[in-house]
Specification:
Blueprint (H helix, E strand, L loop, with lengths): L27 E3 L4 H21 L2 H18 L4 E2 H19 L3 H15 L12 H9 L16 E4 L5 E8 L2 E5 L3 E2 L4 H15 L2 E8 L10 E12 L11 H12 L3 E6 L5 H13 L6 E2 L17 E7 L5 E10 L4 E9 L7 H15 L4 E8 L1 H5 L5 H11 L7 H8 L5 E9 L4 H13 L2 E2 L6 H5 L1
Parallel strand pairs: 5-7, 13-14
Antiparallel strand pairs: 1-2, 3-4, 4-5, 4-6, 7-15, 8-14, 8-15, 9-11, 10-16, 11-12, 12-13
Helix pairs in contact: 1-2, 2-4, 3-4, 7-9
């Protein structure tokens, strides 16, 4: 590596965790995904509507609302769990009690809402105990920059019967949101997707795919693709910083050499307490995201915890030996593919440190035989490249900058374009008739903050 950096490369398997059993309140007591159930729902809705037409009372409207919500759930195929039934019954009892106490409007609302509660969508539980199986499939997946992010501990998984392929997903408000492409044996992907869609149908979940690659669009023929950006993938063996177009990149890297920055690579699971304390301090000194985590489809969690196998860190030290920044990378394809997870740097770190860390990581991975290194995901590059934006693109350009407090996409793109490595497009696959509720679901998955759990070290405690 440049400047005599050292490489410590060690990938260990995570401890096997015991899978949690199904909680009693999640047990399905009524399956409604049948033609007979749909007929019953339609008939009940018709009777309630007829009653309203004849009676024209508040009570008739209350019953119609409850029946309509139940019928909607039936037509969506949502099963009824024990928890749903108990809560719905409680809402009905509370509604009658409110009527007895002369709180008629409150009682009507409670009774009407019992239909919503009864047919509330079920959810899939996170499965962190599946990490050993998922890591094995990530190691078998090449050419997919987002494959390592399937390991995120908040995700659920759907495997083929023989466990050779899997889909990572999360559920929210009745939608099963698939994270990227399937992982594992691509010969099983068609079968896997068909079985996954069938499973979602029995649970009343509607399928959405966030971050589907161009080459996997054919797996989801019933969903409409909407482009959201492009991968940035370096051809490791061919990468050279030569020519006029790499001038800005060379200058940024040279600035860090001039101020005495050196780099080294370590495996996250092999960090010493001293290194862990140093890097935790860098993370907490970073401009954004120190105390919280965000993201779903193209990011991992658990920075510095050593929870995930196949994670490498490249550190940048100044002349005094103080760590000024580090990048976190994840491996896939048995080491053929390397993907940047998150970069961290101190606020006062020298300019060009991110470029230096990326370039040194590319060189180190070239020496280890890697084929591809993905730097990040370039969202909406066409909008940022367009200097003569029309009204529509100007609207989206302004809307994108409203989210700069969460992620400065244009600043990220200016960094990425120095590498001239825009790759394949990625898409959101969705039914266009449900764009508005899906915006809420997808934005909440990507941007709602979660508390970051940092490791505690001897050095940080004694300090």
């Amino acid at each position: 590596m440049p400047d005599g950096g050292r490489i410590v490369f060690c990938v260990t398997e995570p401890p096997v965790q015991v899978a949690l059993g199904l909680r009693a309140r999640e047990r399905v007591v009524v399956h409604v995904d049948t033609l007979a159930a749909r007929w019953v729902g339609a008939l009940a809705l018709l009777i309630a509507a007829s009653w309203l037409a004849v009676g024209k009372s508040a009570w008739s409207l209350t019953i119609l609302a409850a029946v309509a919500l139940i019928a909607r759930g039936i037509f969506l195929g949502r099963p009824v769990t024990a928890a749903h039934a108990i809560c719905a019954a409680a809402a009905v009892v509370a509604g009658f009690a409110a009527h007895l106490l002369a709180f008629d409007i409150t009682g009507d609302v409670l009774i009407a809402s019992s239909g919503l509660v009864l047919m509330w969508p079920t959810t899939a539980r996170p499965e962190p105990g599946q990490l050993p199986r998922v890591w094995a499939l990530v190691k078998a997946t090449s050419g997919d920059p987002v494959a390592p992010f399937a390991m995120q501990m908040r995700k659920s998984y759907f495997f083929t019967a023989d466990g050779t392929a899997a889909i990572a997903y999360r559920t929210r408000l009745g939608y099963a949101v698939v994270s990227g492409d399937p992982i594992g044996d691509d010969d099983r992907f068609d079968e896997l997707v068909a079985e996954f869609v069938g499973m979602c149908h029995t649970r009343g979940w509607r399928v959405v795919v966030l971050g589907c690659s161009e080459r996997r669009l054919g797996l989801w023929p019933d969903l409409r693709p909407v482009p959201i950006g492009r991968d940035v993938v370096i051809n490791v063996s061919a990468f050279e910083m030569v020519g006029r177009r790499f001038r800005n990149l060379r200058q940024a890297v040279q600035r860090t050499h001039n101020v005495g920055i050196t780099t080294e690579i370590v495996a996250e699971q092999e960090l010493s307490d001293a290194q862990l304390a140093e890097l935790t301090d860098v993370l907490l000194s970073s401009p954004k995201g120190a105390r919280t985590e965000r993201g779903f489809s193209m990011i991992l969690d658990g920075a510095l915890t050593g929870h995930y196998p196949g994670i490498l860190l490249i550190l940048a030290r100044d002349r005094a030996g103080r760590v000024q920044g580090f990048h976190r990378y994840a491996l896939a394809g048995g080491g053929t593919d390397v993907t940047l997870d998150v970069p961290w740097r101190r606020r006062e770190a020298p300019n060009g440190i991110d470029e230096r860390l990326s370039v040194d990581m590319i060189q180190a991975m070239k020496d280890l035989g890697a084929q591809r290194l993905s730097l990040a995901f370039a969202a909406f590059p066409e909008i940022f490249n367009d200097t003569a934006r029309g009204p529509l693109r100007s609207f989206f350009y302004t809307a994108i900058h409203l989210g700069d407090a969460l992620i400065a996409l244009e600043s990220l793109y200016r960094y990425l374009r120095k590498f001239h490595a825009l790759g394949g497009r990625r898409y959101v696959l969705l039914p266009l008739s449900q764009v508005l509720p899906l915006l809420v679901v997808l934005l909440s998955l990507e941007f709602l903050p979660r508390r970051r759990h940092l490791p505690v070290t001897t050095e940080s405690v004694s300090a």
